[in-house]
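Working notes for the structural subgroup meeting. M.R. asked for a predicted model of this chain before we commit to crystallization trials. I am recording the input and output together here so anyone reviewing the notebook later can reproduce the run.

Input as submitted:
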Amino acid sequence: MPVYEYICTGCSERTQRLQDVGEDSSGRKCLSCGQGVLKKVFSVFGTQASQGPGLSCSPSPENRRT
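Returned structure, recorded in token form:
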């Protein structure tokens, strides 16, 4: 299940919610202020890649600056 990030339209509090991909979250109220409606916001996520040719984030020895 992915984690989605929301922001409250009333108090601007950011919260995260673990939910199914197709689950409807419309009409949910803010847990902090109880007044605002939660609006889904774009958030970044991390992932882990296996090390192999062409998958490294660091420059190869021949491309490193000295």
